[in-house]
């Protein structure tokens, strides 16, 4: 099998590592990739967000499968163009990717499918926004309706700040979704689907805020771990039956089947399971941790989803270890990340037992004082990923690797998976699904 992966980041590097471990996968290509991806597969300087060049590249390479990593090409219709050209594609159509591309659309689908989510209102004016804020009360949750790379959401108890964010979105020509605040721990569950059948991966937790203790602004994600030892028994089955399956069924019923991975961003609240958001692709950096544990060959799995042959009965195989991914971000991320600095310590980190480095915003400097060296080229620069016998060991290894990375001004959180490792995450009592009945 020859696979083309579209995208530039850590998620794509993690997907490519997993594809290369599948004996059925003979060749992997990537566009545009990054410096780490270029070390393992051929990369192509093609605008992967644009349907025409992406399809042209797939034709030239004569690939058997295209895997679309990020949301931007999906929302731009890259998967549609590739399918029209006859390629099996892992990734939803433009119409189905609206589940991520418009929060208002996602809410409408959830309402139609009976999927539990936060109560919400769409606002287009300051007066509507103010009214919605006062209806739900503090803490306030204000979301830019369109794509914002995880940074369009403001959660605050400051009503003026909430209103200011809404006004900023209006000024940019957008609308906002204002919703009730969901308490309780968050879970990311990736559900692979061929448009009909659904197959969940192992749940993970992401760390959205830039600073330790969940302080500071939202980012694309500063780290992740999996599995989640604190989840109640039956949690994944509950998400499949109450969230993923009804959503996939509703999208098919509308004539816009969702093929790819439905990212269910969930809160485990006092009142039960709630969807915070859907994404139309694998999460970043959760994928770096989740795929580190997947023992089932990934190429066949994604091909089966792309060609409508997913086997729901398949028992995915997982390595018994825990995985922790720690993101190293550039100075001044998420506002205005500094770029172009050389990165050291990559080989030393990878030499540690159970540790590998997944590149995100990296490039090989073409010229100048660092010519030929790997330099930072994005906000989230890389993730140090470690497997360990338990979360403590995986954390210990990931942080020993992180400490070896040299990048001027870089930042990382020191508390990824810490609460879970210490047993400090509790699920609000009413939310635990009832234990399954014993067979008579
Ligand atoms: P989203 O882009 O919708 O995933 O939102 C980004 C982050 O904002 C989420 O991961 C949550 O941490 C937070 N968030 C979003 N919606 C809510 C909500 N209704 N209640 C509490 N936190 C939220
Ligand atoms: N880690 C959050 C996301 O991928 O959207």
Task: Walk me through this protein's architecture.
The protein has 440 residues and is an alpha+beta fold. It has 3 domains: 2-93, Rossmann fold (3-Layer(aba) Sandwich); 119-179, 2-Layer Sandwich (Dna Ligase, domain 1); 186-421, ATP-grasp fold, B domain (D-amino Acid Aminotransferase, Chain A, domain 1). 32% of the residues lie in helices and 24% in strands. The chain has helices at 10-20, 35-38, 51-61, 71-75, 78-84, 94-101, 103-113, 126-136, 159-171, 235-253, 286-293, 298-306, 346-350, 391-404, 418-421; strands at 2-7, 27-32, 65-68, 89-90, 120-123, 140-144, 153-156, 176-179, 186-193, 198-200, 205-206, 209-211, 215-218, 223-226, 260-269, 272-279, 322-329, 355-359, 362-364, 374-376, 380-388. The protein has a 5-stranded antiparallel β-sheet with strand order 11-14-17-21-18. Helix 1 (10-20) links the parallel strand 1 (2-7) and strand 2 (27-32). The longest helix has 19 residues, at 235-253. The structure holds adenosine monophosphate and glycine. Keywords: ATP-binding, Ligase, Nucleotide-binding, Purine biosynthesis.
């Amino acid at each position: 099998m020859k696979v083309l992966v579209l995208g530039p980041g850590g998620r794509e590097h993690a997907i490519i590592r997993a594809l290369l471990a599948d004996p059925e996968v003979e060749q992997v290509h990537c566009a545009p990739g990054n410096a780490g991806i270029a070390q393992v597969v051929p990369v192509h300087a093609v605008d992967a967000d644009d349907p025409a060049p992406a399809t042209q590249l797939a034709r030239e390479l004569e690939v058997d499968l295209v895997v679309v990593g990020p949301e931007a090409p999906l929302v731009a219709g890259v998967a549609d163009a590739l399918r029209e050209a006859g390629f099996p594609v892992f990734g939803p159509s433009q119409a189905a990717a609206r589940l991520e591309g418009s929060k208002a659309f996602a809410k409408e689908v959830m309402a139609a499918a009976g999927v539990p989510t936060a109560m919400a209102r769409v606002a287009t004016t300051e007066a509507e926004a103010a009214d919605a804020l006062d209806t739900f009360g503090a803490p306030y949750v204000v979301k830019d309706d369109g794509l914002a790379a995880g940074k369009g959401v403001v959660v605050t108890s400051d009503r003026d700040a909430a209103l200011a964010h809404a006004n900023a979105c209006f000024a940019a020509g957008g609308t906002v979704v204002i919703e009730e605040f969901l308490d309780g721990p968050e879970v990311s569950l990736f559900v692979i689907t061929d448009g009909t059948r659904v197959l969940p991966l192992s749940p993970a937790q992401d760390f959205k805020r830039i600073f330790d203790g969940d302080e500071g602004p939202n980012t694309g994600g500063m780290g992740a771990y999996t599995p989640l030892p604190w989840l109640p028994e039956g949690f994944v089955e509950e998400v499949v039956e109450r969230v993923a399956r009804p959503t996939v069924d509703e999208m098919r019923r509308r004539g816009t089947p969702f093929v790819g991975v439905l990212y269910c961003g969930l809160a485990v609240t006092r009142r039960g399971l709630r969807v915070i958001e859907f994404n139309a692709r694998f999460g970043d950096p959760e994928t770096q941790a989740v795929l580190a544990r997947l023992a089932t060959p990934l190429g066949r799995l994604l091909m089966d989803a792309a060609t409508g042959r997913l086997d729901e009965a398949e028992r995915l195989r997982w390595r018994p270890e825990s995985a922790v991914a720690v993101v190293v971000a550039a100075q001044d991320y998420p506002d205005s990340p500094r770029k172009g600095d050389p990165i050291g310590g990559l080989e030393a980190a990878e030499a540690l037992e159970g540790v590998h480095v997944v590149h995100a915003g990296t490039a090989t400097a073409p010229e100048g004082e660092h010519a030929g060296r790997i330099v930072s080229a994005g906000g989230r620069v890389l993730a140090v990923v470690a497997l360990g016998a338990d979360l403590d060991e995986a954390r210990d290894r990931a942080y020993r690797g992180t400490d070896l990375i040299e990048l001027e001004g870089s930042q990382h959180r020191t508390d990824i998976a810490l609460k879970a490792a210490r047993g400090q995450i509790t699920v609000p009592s009413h939310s635990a699904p009832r234990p399954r009945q014993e067979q008579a």
